[in-house]
């Protein structure tokens, strides 16, 4: 199984791919895709990197696990393929954008339109077995994606990290907050949102304000 990944990321990650943990991880992923239905499709495992080159990253949104239902996961956290019903967390993201920015709720849940504007939509775990949430956790993906966060933190300036929920908030230890911004809130899942930990965080307008302050183009959410 080929690692289809954007060339400017490959230059950064070549040494990572050669580490023993990643070779073990990749053998596991190959076996899983051979024996089971897994998501996202093989060609989209590294979609977050292929839709947002390293040089273009200005915002990072962290998720945990890909969606595990048929046709949902497309390699971008919180995103679903065109024509797929919006999962509850994505609905709450779009509702917050509606109230925060006054923009209409979108028809498509495919967030590649965000990725192409410089948002890295990164799940901590990049693959999952069908209908088995968390089935590919603790196999090595988290080591890999933590390294991604650390590389962005060390090699770039003024990146905005959106950390939603307890799991994502723990990643702040990987981020140099003296040169980057980290915005935290509850998770957009119904459990968290309905308890008042998500709605009203205004992360989308805050992100655009920070981008303008850094003389960067706003995101068209």
UniProtKB/TrEMBL annotation:
Its main location: cytoplasm. InterPro entries: UDG_fam1 (IPR002043), Ura-DNA_Glyclase_AS (IPR018085), Uracil-DNA_glycosylase-like (IPR005122), Uracil-DNA_glycosylase-like_sf (IPR036895). The active site is at residue 65. Its EC number is 3.2.2.27. It is found in: Cytoplasm. Residues 50-211 form the Uracil-DNA glycosylase-like domain. GO terms for molecular function: uracil DNA N-glycosylase activity. It holds the Pfam family UDG. It catalyses: Hydrolyzes single-stranded DNA or mismatched double-stranded DNA and polynucleotides, releasing free uracil. It is an enzyme of class 3 (hydrolase). The keyword Hydrolase applies. Keywords: Cytoplasm, DNA damage, DNA repair, Glycosidase, Hydrolase. One of its GO terms (biological process) is base-excision repair, AP site formation via deaminated base removal. GO terms for cellular component: cytoplasm. Excises uracil residues from the DNA which can arise as a result of misincorporation of dUMP residues by DNA polymerase or due to deamination of cytosine. Belongs to the uracil-DNA glycosylase (UDG) superfamily. UNG family. PANTHER family: URACIL-DNA GLYCOSYLASE. This is Uracil-DNA glycosylase. It comes from Formosa sediminum. The gene is ung.
């Amino acid at each position: 199984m080929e690692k289809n990944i954007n060339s400017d990321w490959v230059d950064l990650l070549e040494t990572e791919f050669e580490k023993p943990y990643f070779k073990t991880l990749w053998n596991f992923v190959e076996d899983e895709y051979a024996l089971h239905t897994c998501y996202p499709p093989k060609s989209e495992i590294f979609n977050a990197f292929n839709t947002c080159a390293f040089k273009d990253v200005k915002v990072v949104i962290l998720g945990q696990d890909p969606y595990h239902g048929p046709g949902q996961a497309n390699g971008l956290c919180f995103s679903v393929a065109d024509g797929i019903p919006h999962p509850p967390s994505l609905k709450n993201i779009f509702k917050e954008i509606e109230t925060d920015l006054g923009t209409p709720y979108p028809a498509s849940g495919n967030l590649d339109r965000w990725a192409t504007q410089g948002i890295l939509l990164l799940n901590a775990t990049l693959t999952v077995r069908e209908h088995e949430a968390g089935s590919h956790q603790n196999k090595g993906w988290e080591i890999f994606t933590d390294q991604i966060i650390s590389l962005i933190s060390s090699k770039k300036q003024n990146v905005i990290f959106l950390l939603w929920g307890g799991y994502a908030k723990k990643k702040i230890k990987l981020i140099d907050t003296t040169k980057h911004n980290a915005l935290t809130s509850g998770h957009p899942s119904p459990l968290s949102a309905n308890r008042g930990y998500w709605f009203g965080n205004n992360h989308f307008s805050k992100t655009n304000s920070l981008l303008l302050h850094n003389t960067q183009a706003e995101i068209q959410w």
